[in-house]
């Protein structure tokens, strides 16, 4: 019987690989066609087209210097200096944005023993993809030819939603849901909730926050943010949505604006990466770290970290379904833009249809978070945070282990098919004092939304231990 099950499983894996090969070869063709379609559409509707990442072109330091954008190396760190005197570190940008081989090209490169040029150590050439240079020129309003004015890209773009919720009037701060003691009493500490990818603050405010006790609320302010590019926060068309940009917006919108001095962090999925970055930046202020389904994949020796995480998160398989969705989102720039147009640009229609279909009996906070973003935001955040964090998380975890004394608790659903439970065990291997709690029968989402009362009670216990 066991032999039969093993044979059946092997046959299933073989069938999955064969079907996946055909499906993703077809998607490679569709992606090329969509590239042409969107270039024409952007030109007709916006008067110009933005270079896409499927192009293999890149600019050297000398070429990028035109248009008052200078690529240079300082102290071993590659930076892009712009007219506004701000700096964009190239290490913040994941090479998976523009290095995503097709199915056939990936199979061919796997047979070669030598690593690709981008992964060879000791390379001194400083390059930056032309699409990134073009976005920076649009950001500072300067073109590359003689320093003349560059027409900024419209925000929102024609393919984005134009409603007021998706385009807040205050473009300099995130949307922050704040719950403070009703009597205005001084609080001892605060709690910052950070959501995951294509989600919003509603992930916390609709389920977890209502279950926090009065006693806990009397001593703390509760903050839940919509990350840059998601929910009711700004969605700039010229942002690269790097880790640095996300963290700086949280600082500006929560820590500085509300005078936060001592705080706990509760983060889900992608938000766990931002939580670790904040903890490293504010080591004396962070009282506890609670990470739910953190996307941590230790990179094997000899692997290019960003490419390894890309292949792990998005294995280009049609089954399970969540792996197929992740693969489309990660590998296909124009196909994922099409999905965003269908779902996000028309999110109000989808939300209304869902309410009518369910006779207004189901709250749609998860849909609000899923639909309210732009392709520019989701595409760059996915690559620059999830894939681009390879190696960076290791350093953050080491600092939390060696230099911070805060409590670290990790939750994971045993049935999580998107991020396996091994991710949380890997966190514990880096931070031995971390407590890992694996919940049976829960997946990537239900680890929170189906056990909100239990989670709220457990969070209060964590906060009280640090008093």
Tell me about this structure.
This protein is an alpha/beta fold and 467 residues long. It has a domain at 176-465: 3-Layer(aba) Sandwich (Rossmann fold), CATH 3.40.50. The protein has 18 helices and 12 strands. The chain has helices at 2-46, 61-64, 103-110, 130-140, 202-205, 214-219, 243-256, 271-281, 305-313, 321-331, 333-343, 347-357, 365-371, 375-387, 392-403, 422-430, 446-449, 452-465, and strands at 58-60, 70-74, 77-81, 87-89, 127-129, 176-179, 189-194, 220-225, 263-268, 286-292, 407-413, 435-439. The protein has a 7-stranded mixed β-sheet with strand order 6-8-7-9-10-11-12, sandwiched between helices. Strand 3 (77-81) and strand 4 form a beta hairpin.
Question: How much of the polypeptide forms β-strand, as a percent range?
Answer: 5-15%
Rg to the nearest angstrom? 23 Å
The helix/strand series, from N terminus to C terminus, equals HEHEEEHEHEEHHEHEHEHHHHHHHEHEHH
Number of helices: 18
Strand arrangement within the widest β-sheet reads: 6-8-7-9-10-11-12
CATH topology grouping of the domain at 176-465:
Rossmann fold
- The N- and C-terminal alpha carbons lie at a distance of 56 Å
CATH H-level superfamily of the domain at 176-465: Alpha/Beta hydrolase fold, catalytic domain
Tell me the structural class.
Answer: alpha/beta
CATH class of the domain at 176-465: Alpha Beta
Uncertain stretches of 5 or more adjacent residues: 60-69, 82-86, 113-126
Shape verdict = globular
Number of strands: 12
The CATH architecture of the domain at 176-465 would be 3-Layer(aba) Sandwich
Tell me about the largest β-sheet: 7 strands, mixed
